[in-house]
Design a protein that fits this description.
The complex is a heterodimer of chains A (149) and B (113). By secondary structure, chain A is mostly helical. Chain A is built from seven helices and one strand, in the order αβαααααα. Chain B has one domain. The radius of gyration of chain B is 16 Å and the shape is globular. Classes of the chains: A mainly alpha (149), B mainly alpha (113).
């Protein structure tokens, strides 16, 4: 992991460059579709055979991360793959907020519960990202996890 | 659940994963884009279908299981940070599945099925 490259990348403004989507190959999308379909099927079958709580575990299984991290490493290097995984920590914390919100609000109103759960994911993951970005806590996280930092 | 419903859940999950991964592809910087790697893509599709088929009472246990799985996901991402830097992406991210298995599996057994 190259600290300088990571620091330069971190300084980029936050946003979306939609034209980058055109560079995604069909095989990259195909791999993600197959893994996504596979884990949704596993969750459905596990829920049916063992029980819904067991099936629910797989709704938060990192099925596509190995494929996407490997693709990022191949295209942009290990540092960028590491940065993606680092952002994944905040996404995962948001995932817990999603599940908790859904669990609490589903009995009240199922449709609103799912929408609010998505909002909880976005607020938690993006909120934590911006707190870490503005306070420089990324540097601490990098020092703790990376080798020889 | 019929084979058709299971198949449809799978297809919807695949489409949701592709949609979130495209948002992640467009996002920058990379650490911000990484948020979408752990987006609730499969969960949204699957919970939506379960709500439609079984109602909210039948969906709550899935969300409860997902909350346990989320703890595993946090452990997975932290482990992958450590392992990717040392073993590269493919091996590091696959070995990190063990962290998910230990935390999610352990909590599932501890908290009762």
């Amino acid at each position: 992991m190259e600290g300088e490259l990571l620091l330069r990348d971190d300084r980029e403004p936050v946003g979306f460059e939609w034209s980058k989507i055109r560079s995604v190959t069909r095989s990259d999308l195909g791999i993600r579709f197959v893994f996504g379909t596979g884990i949704a099927l596993i969750a459905a079958v596990a829920g049916m055979v063992v029980g819904p709580k067991f099936g629910g575990l797989f709704l938060a299984f990192p099925a596509i991360l190995p494929a996407s991290l490997t693709l990022i490493e191949k295209k942009e290097g290990t540092t960028k793959a590491w940065a993606d995984a680092s952002g994944g920590v905040f996404g995962a914390l948001g995932l817990a907020a999603f599940a908790l919100t859904a669990m609490l609000l589903l009995p009240w109103n199922p449709a609103a519960a799912l929408v609010l759960a998505l909002v909880a994911w976005a607020v938690t993951s993006m909120g934590l990202y911006f707190v870490f970005r503005m306070t420089g806590l990324f540097l601490l996280q990098d020092r703790l996890a990376a080798k020889g930092q | 659940m019929s084979i058709w419903v299971g198949g449809f859940k799978g297809l919807l999950g695949g489409v949701a994963v592709v949609a979130f991964s495209l948002i992640g592809e467009a996002g920058h910087p990379k650490r911000f884009a990484g948020l979408f790697s752990a987006a609730p893509s499969v969960a949204v599709a699957s919970l939506l279908m379960t709500v439609l088929l079984k109602g909210s009472a039948g969906t709550v246990p899935y969300a409860r299981g997902m909350l346990i799985g989320s703890a595993g996901m946090i452990a997975y991402c932290l482990a992958s940070l450590y392992l990717i830097d040392r073993l590269h992406a493919l091996l590091g991210s696959i070995l990190s599945w063990l962290a998910w298995l230990m935390v999610a599996g352990g909590l599932y057994l501890m908290l009762g099925r």
